[in-house]
Amino acid sequence: MTPASRGSKVEIRNSEFETRNSKIENRKPNLEGRNAEFGPNFEFRISNFGLLLEVGCEEIPARFLRDAERSLGERVHAALSEARLLPKVDVEAVREPPLRTYSTPRRLVVHVHAVLPQQPDKVDEILGPPVKVAVDAEGRYTRAAESFAQKNSARLQDLTRTTTPKGEYLALRKTTQGRSAHEILPEILPAVILGLSFPKSMYWLEKSGPRFVRPIRWVLAILGEGKQAKAVGFEILGVESGDFTFGHRVHSKGRIVAKDFSDYQAKLRRAYVEFDRENRRQTVVNEANVLLEPSLKLIDDAELEEWTVNSTEWPSAIRGGFDERFLRLPREILTTVMRDHQKYFAVESRQGKLEPYFVAILNVDSDERGLIRRGHERVLRARFRDAEFFWDTDQRTPLRERLPWLEKVTYQAELGSNASYADKVRRMEGIAKAICHTLEGQGKATASDTAHALRAVQFCKCDLTTQMVQEFPELQGIVGGLYARTQLEPREVADAIYDHYLPQGAEDRCPRSLVGAVVSLADKLDSVAAGFEAGLEPTGSGDPFALRRAGNGIVKLAAEVLVGLDLTVLTQQIPSVRGADAGEQAAPGRGGLSQKIESFLRERMEFYLRETARLRYDTVRAVLRPTRIHQNLVPSVALCRARALERVRDTEDFVALAAAAKRTRNIRRSADVADIVSGQADPKLLVEDPELDLYAAYLSLGRRIERLSESGDFEEAFRAMATIRPQVDRFFEKVLVMTEDATVRKNRLMLLLRLNEDVFTSLADLAEIVAEPRSGSAG
Fold first, then answer.
1. In this structure, which topology does domain 639-768 adopt according to CATH?
2. 313 within 8 A of 363, measured Cβ to Cβ
3. Per-residue pLDDT tens for 626-660?
4. What phi and psi values does residue 419 have, to the nearest 5 degrees?
5. DSSP 3-state helix, strand, coil percentages of the chain (rounded to 5)?
6. What per-residue confidence (pLDDT) applies to 606?
7. Of 136, 350, 425, 638, which has the most beta carbons under 10 Å away?
C-alpha cells in the first residue's frame, strides 16, 4: 500500500487542521481584544506562532511510548506556562486543547497551537515596611523607607502605598521587560526533553552524562508558521536542533525540511510515516479485517493492538496460516505462542472456534511477493512444533509424580531452609486448611470443597517442572490446569489450578469457583507472609516481591468471592499454620508478623475501596477505622458498609450528625483524662430534659443498630443513626457539658463517650466524614 492509496485519510487529516486553523483565525478579534494586558506595543497573532517540537531517536520500546508522549506534552506545557509564553484565552470559547502530542517508535512530537512571540512585561509588587514605621508624623520618609528604596535600586518618589489585611505598607512596583520566545525556548527546551523519565534509560556519550530512553538522533524545533517560521536552535547530547526530520527507516532516505506543522505532516506522510497513533490504530483494524472472510474475526486483544500501534510508523497487515494438525493443542497454548512470542493476532470463527490463521502487522508498506508472510509462517510452524513436543513429552509424567521435583525448584532464596516450592506448597496447605475450616463453619463450603482445594494446592505448582512452562512461563497455572484435565483430575481441581494465579491485580477477574478462590488466597497469603519474613516488604515505590499486587488480590478475593472471611483472624493463624506445616517451630517474633500482614492488608483494602470501588476518601477512612462492632478486617463487610455510607452520607440529617460526631470527639479530646472513663451514664444524674431525651434515644438506637448490623442491612442502620439528630442538636444547644459540678460533668462525658462508641463509631467513624452535602442529593 502506497501513500497515494491512503490519500483519503491524509486529506481528512489535512482538512482537519485547515478547519482548526480557520477556527483559530475566526477567534482572532476576541483574542486581540486582550492585547492591552500584554502592553500597547504587543501584537498577538495566534495562527502565526505555533511551536512544533520533535525528538527523533532510535526505536523506543512500545511499552514506554504512550507515557513518554504524554509526559513530553505535559512538560512542554508547564515550561511554556512558567515562561509566560502561553496566551491567556477564554477556556470556554477555545475548545481546542493548547497542544497536541503524537508519537511513533522513532519520534516524540508536540505541536503547540499558539505561543506568544514575546513575553508580556511582568509587574511585581514588592512589599516594604509598614507605613507607621516608614513615614513619620510630618509625612516624611524615615530611614526604614530609605533602606527599602536603596535595597531595590529605586527612588523614594517611586514608592507607593498598599493596604493589606495587616495594615498599610509601602510598596514598589517593579517591571521586568518581556523577552522574545526565540531567546527563551533554547534555554527551556533541552531541560524539558532531558527531564523525561523512563522505566529504563541509557547513556551513549559518557556515564556521568544525561540519560535518555534511546540515543537521540535529531531534534526538530520550529516556532511560527509559513514565512514567519524559524528554527529554534539549541544543542542536546551533542545533537543540534534544526528544521528537519526523517521519514520511514526503509522507505525514505535523507533529511526532510519542514516549514511548519502543516508542511511537516504532509511531508512525513509522503515519507511513509503516520505520526498520529489513532490513524495507525484505525489502519491496523481496517487492514486486518479486510484480510478476513465474513465468517472470521480477530480475537479481541487490546494490549496487542496497542503494542502494534506503538511499534510501527507505517503499519500494514498480512494474513498467514498454519497446519490444522496443531489445532489439537489447547487454544491457550496456540494463542499464547502467536500473541506473546510472535505478536500475531489469532483468528477465530464467528462461533468462537480457533481457526488456522493469523494476522501480522508489518512496519513496511507491503509484502507483494509474499516473502515476509512465508517467513512468519515458517517461524510459527517451528514454535508450534516445539509446543507440540513439550505437550506430548510432559504428559508422560503426571502432575502427582512431579510433586517431589518441587524440592529442587527455588521459590525465594532469602527464606533459607524453606526456600523451595515444595516448602511453599506445604505452607499453602496449612493456610488452605484454616480457610476451609472457617468456610465450613459458616456453611459456605463442604467437606468435598475442602478435599478438592487441598488436592489443587498440592498440584498447583507442579507445572513449574514442565518443559511447556519453562519455554512459555506466562502459561504457568494454565498449563497445570490443562494437564490436570487430561490426567482426569476432578473438574473442580483442574479449574482451581488453572485459575489460582487470579486475580493478578485489583482490576483482574477472580477464579471461577470457591475452590479456586481458596487456592489463590492461600498462595497469595503465603507470598505476602514470605515476603515480610524475608525482609522484602514494599517501601515507597519499591516492591521487589510484588507484594502489593498479591495484597490487592487477597482483598479482592475476600471482598467479592469469599464473602464474610475475616482476614484479621486468618492472619493471626498464619504464623502457626506456616510454622507447623513447614516442619518447624514458630520462631521468636512471629507474633509481629501477623500484625504487619494485617496492617499491610488494611492499606490494600483502602486502595481497593478508593481505586476499584471508587468511593470517596473520607468514606473509606471512616469505614476502615476499627469500631466497637467491626474491629476486624472483613473486606466484604467493609465494602458493604462503605457503599451504604456513600448512599446516605449526603442527606441533610446525616451531614449534621457527622458534624455532631466531630464535635463530640473534640469535647472528649479536650476534657481531663480523669473525666474520660468507661461504663454507662447514670440516668439519675441526668437532670435536664435534653440530656434525658438524648439518653433515651441513644438506648433505643444502639440496640437497633446492632440488630441491623447483624442482618447486614447497613444502609438502614446508617439511616437509623440520622434519626437521633434532633436529640443531639438540642443537647449541644441546651446542655453545658463542661459544667463546674464534677459529678454531672463526668456523667455527661460518659454519655457522650457511649454515644460516640455505640452510635457515632459503631459502623464507621462519622467524625471522619467531611460534611459537605452535594447539591441535589436525596433526603
1. Isoleucyl-tRNA Synthetase; Domain 1 (1.10.730)
2. yes
3. 877 788 899 999 999 999 999 999 888 888 888 88
4. -90, -10
5. 55, 10, 35
6. 94
7. 638
Contacts of 8 (CB under 8 A, 6+ apart): none
Counted residue by residue, the chain has a size of 779
Report helix angle 590-607 to 547-560, nearest 10: 70
Q: For residue 139, is it left (φ>0), alpha (ψ between -120 and 50) or beta?
A: left
| Angle between helix 491-499 and 447-459 (nearest 10) | 50
Q: What is the pLDDT of residues 434-445, one digit of tens each?
A: 999 999 999 999
Residues 521, 121: Cα–Cα separation, whole Å: 63
- Local confidence band at 677 (pLDDT 50, 70, 90 cut-offs): low
Residue 616 has pLDDT above 50, yes or no: yes
Residues whose CB falls within 8 Å of the CB of residue 592, separated by 6 or more in sequence, listed in order: none
Burial of 409 from C-beta contacts in 10 A (0-12 / 13-18 / 19+):
middle
Q: What is the dihedral of CA 653, 654, 656, 657, to 10 degrees?
A: 120
Residue 349 CB contacts under 8 Å (≥ 6 apart), including other chains: 295, 296, 297, 355
Region 553-575: mean pLDDT is 93
- For 404, 425, 596, the CA distances from 416, given in Å and listed in that order, are 19, 16, 21
- CATH no., domain 402-614: 1.10.3210
Give the rounded distance of the alpha carbon of 367 from its chain centre. Answer: 40
| CB contact at 8 A, 677 and 750 | yes
How far apart (Å, rounded) are the C-alpha atoms in residues 342 and 322? 13
Residue 671's nearest CA partner among 660, 663, 679 is: 663
Per residue in 87-142, pLDDT (tens digit) is 886 555 556 688 999 999 999 999 999 999 998 888 888 889 998 888 888 888 99
Residue with C-alpha cell 475501596?
609
Output the CA torsion 519→520→524→530 (10° steps): 30
Using CB atoms within 10 A of its CB, is residue 526 exposed (0-12), middle (13-18) or buried (19+)? buried
Question: Is the peptide bond prior to 503 cis by the omega test (within 30 degrees of 0)?
Answer: yes
- Helix ranges (DSSP H) in 104-218: 131-134, 143-151, 181-194
Lowest pLDDT segment from 20-24, 149-153, 379-383: 20-24
Q: Which long-range contacts (CB under 8 A, 24 or more apart) does 490-495 make?
A: 490/452, 490/455, 492/449, 492/452, 492/456, 493/452, 493/455, 493/456, 493/459
Paired with 345 in beta bridges are 359
Cell of 216: 537521540
SS3 345: strand
Q: Which residue has the cell 500494514?
A: 316
- Quick check: 18 pLDDT over 70? no
Q: What is the DSSP annotation of 456-501?
A: HHHHTTGGGGSHHHHH-GGGTTHHHHHHHHHTT--HHHHHHHHHTT
Q: How confident is the model over 341-359, as pLDDT tens digits? A: 999 999 999 999 999 999 9
